[in-house]
Amino acid sequence: MSLDNMDTSDVAEDPIERFKQRYASQKSDSTAERYTTHLERWRDWLELREKDVENVAEDVDARPADVEGVTAGDVEDHLDDMYASGYAENTANGARAAISAFYQTLRQFRRNPADADHIDRSWSATTLIKEKTRDPVKYLPKEDVEALADNVPSPVPRNALIVRLLYATGLRRGELCNLRVKDVDRDSQTIAVWTEKAGDSRKVPYPDSLRQQIANWMDVGRGMVYGAEDSEYLFPTRQSDRISGETVRYLVTKAAEEAGLQEVYGTDVEGRERALITPHTLRHSYAVQAAKNGMRAPFLRDLLGQHDINVTEIYLQIASEDAVDAGKEHGPTI
Prior knowledge:
By secondary structure, the protein is mainly alpha-helical. The chain has helices spanning 15-26, 29-48, 72-84, 89-111, 142-150, 156-169, 173-177, 211-221, 245-258, 279-292, 297-304, 309-330, and strands at 184-185, 190-195, 200-205, 264-267, 273-275.
């Protein structure tokens, strides 16, 4: 039945069920079912953070911890948590599409409950849909990473360590937020990265250069954070038992601005600028540098926690192309 001819009294009160009805009328039952699964997971995630799936922040670009309603940062944090829990990239992308479609439809329903032909596309900004002007992989040389660490906002010791740790281990933003004190083995200089979905972990090493910084944070700096004694997480804050993904994003993007490295690569559908250098840039930087240093694809895949080796081999291809460019620039001539 078309929603044009549907009595509004037949429309479900539950927002996700209502979305399912509307979306099935426009697309397909299978897509609607798949999107519903993503949205139910999304609602559960929000409820743990005491947020209502229908309550949208007036400023969707606000930091999630600063407002009661749902923001774009909540979406990014949720996707990061999915990655950290072992969900494949395709699954996370499906969740992004479902959340985007849900809020577009929700906005239109509030304007006119009987109108299902037109989906307001402006709400896609909440899921950070961007112009297609970004390079597939943005990465930084070591000296630029050091510049980021030298220009982080306060608290400097914690934030500088986070920048260096993201670069030195290739952790995802959500994985770093979920690190617990007991996950750090200072004797072996390794970190256990757990995936909730698979129920297992991978070990990633950290270099000697971070040994003292990590010790300083764990033995001194962390204990100076109010409430840290009640938290099991490596990076608690004064407001929460663990740092949020949006806070990590903010400190990296702010450091890039202060270091003069930040670039704008495009805008969302509402014209807001998007930063090129983010926490994920540091993960890319780790992977490309590891490939340049000769790490084989299977080892790199395991350290990154990736499932598809074809994705990992992108970094090896970039390293190879950089080597060719370096040869052209610095190789001998006769």
